[in-house]
Amino acid sequence: MTSAEWIDDPGGLEDLCRQLLTEPAYALDTEFHRERTYYPHLALLQVAFPGRLVLVDPLGLDLSPLADVLRSDAVFVAHAAEQDLEVLLRACGVLPSNLFDTQVAAGFLGFSSPSLSTLVDQLLHVKLPKGDRLTNWTRRPLTDAQKEYAASDVAHLLELRDIIREQLEAGGRLAWAEQECAVQLERARTVSDPATAWWRLKETRTLRGRSRCVAQEVAQWRERRAMALDIPSRFVISDMAILGIAHRPPASVRDLRDIRGLEGRPLKNDAADELLAAVQRGKELDDSQLRLPQRDDLDPALRPAVALVSAWIAQLARDVHIDASLLATRADLHTLLRGDTRGRLSEGWRSHLLGEPIRRLVEGEAALAFDGKGDLVVEKRSRQPITGE
Questions:
Q1: Is this structure's pTM higher than 0.85?
Q2: Options 3.90.180.10, 1.10.287.4070, 1.10.3540.10, 3.30.420.10; CATH of 5-189
Q3: What angle do CA 388, 362, 316 make, to 5 degrees?
Q4: Where are the alpha helices (DSSP H) in 116-209?
Q5: Phi/psi at 77 (nearest 5 deg)?
Q6: Per-residue pLDDT averaged across 204-211, rounded?
Q7: Is the pLDDT of residue 298 over 90?
Q8: What is the pLDDT of residue 2?
Q9: CATH number of the domain located at residue range(s) 300-380 in this protein
Q10: pLDDT digit string (tens) for 336-383?
Q11: Looking at 181-185, 286-290, 374-378, which range is the least confident one?
Q12: 85: how many CB neighbours lie within 10 A of its CB?
């Protein structure tokens, strides 16, 4: 692998972006920190395209020139891009127009959420350098080992993409992978609603009646405060404290001291008053304003079908060499079995491969059977039921 260029000045970044605008595809990766912040903070940007391998130091740089590159028709090639997309959206204000995620695409070749080193090893027969997962990317200057490790994250991505595309095209699955990458881009555009932050609390099922309203308002206050201060939400107050407040809403600062998770930890500045105001909003919240998570209202009679179909999907994943996590989740199955046609199994390639066979199974038009070799197959159902008589 050739050594990477280092760019830490506006002119160098602008020149890089001008050249990227002439490329049909480019590989990009990010290094960032967020252990003590709400938002990810970009610490390094790695870029590769034919003839250049570049490390961009974003500390103190205006990254707005990169926005034009992301908006262009060029294909943004990355591996496990979910967090990179979040970082870029915050740093540049835009997301790429076209994404090819090598981890997602490789799932359609039978790889199960493969690491980059696994794919490079198995498809390119190259060993990537090992690095320190917990390295401090904000330290300057970076060591040669850090630079080599960071550059290796993009050095082989374009070649890897070409091989994966070729194999997907040969198997008739390239469109499937491209659809899935487009879905990933769409998810990255979705902004989470602070009003639903209480759904992520552990033991939310223990909440009833008014306590759910208090939990919603207090969790929303915590989320918004964490965003404003750019600190992890747990640094504001803990999940345990929110549940304690919801079960026994405090009316004063003195009451707050008795809440488990807040004892011995006085709230700073105006936080106590804001928290008590959130509690009061929860107590007065109209039931119509309570944001409830989607209920799992699947007909109990269909629950055995979920277990049976899940076993068939696991078998199908092995047969067709597609990562099972790409085929269907349990939530996908529940959506389909409830008759909701807006789910993933009712459209695109999943409808043909999974949705239609599952529908025929549930409606009794088909049955699952062993093929004599230990594998499950879907076959036309005999109308002659087998009884125990």
A1: yes
A2: 3.30.420.10
A3: 100
A4: 116-119, 144-155, 157-170, 174-189
A5: -105, 125
A6: 89
A7: no
A8: 65
A9: 1.10.150.80
A10: 988 888 899 998 899 999 999 998 888 888 888 777 777 777 877 765
A11: 374-378
A12: 22
Report the greatest alpha carbon distance in the chain. Answer: 84
DSSP-derived secondary structure letter, 109: G
* Residue at token pair 């008014």: 210
Residue matched to tokens 């493969």: 114
Supply the angle between the helices 174-189 and 157-170 in degrees, to the nearest 10: 130
Query: Which residues fall within 8 angstroms of residue 44, CB to CB, at 6 or more apart?
Result: 30, 31, 32, 55, 56, 57, 58, 137, 142, 150
Domains 194-289 and 300-380 share a fold: yes
38-58: average pLDDT: 97
**Distance from C-alpha of 350 to C-alpha of 330, rounded to nearest angstrom:** 14
**pLDDT (0 to 100) of residue 296:** 62
Amino acid making up residue 222: R
The residue assigned the tokens 């076209």 is 98
Q: What is the pLDDT of residues 83-108, one digit of tens each?
A: 999 999 999 999 999 999 999 999 99
CATH of 194-289, picked from 3.90.226.10, 3.40.50.2300, 1.10.150.80, 3.30.300.180, is 1.10.150.80
**Run of H or E including 85:** helix 82-92
How far is 163 from 114, CA to CA, in rounded Å? Answer: 15
Q: Crossing angle for the helix pair 330-337 and 303-320, nearest 10 degrees?
A: 120
**Residue 172's closest CA among 331, 321, 336?**
321
Query: Is the per-residue pLDDT at 389 higher than 80?
Result: no
Name the percent of the chain in helix, strand, coil, to the closest 5: 50, 10, 35
Query: Facing residues of 369 across strands?
Result: 377
Which amino acid does the sequence have at 282?
A: G
Residue-wise DSSP of 264-301: T-PPPTTHHHHHHHHHHHHHH--GGG--PPPP----GG
Tokens of 196: 């639903």
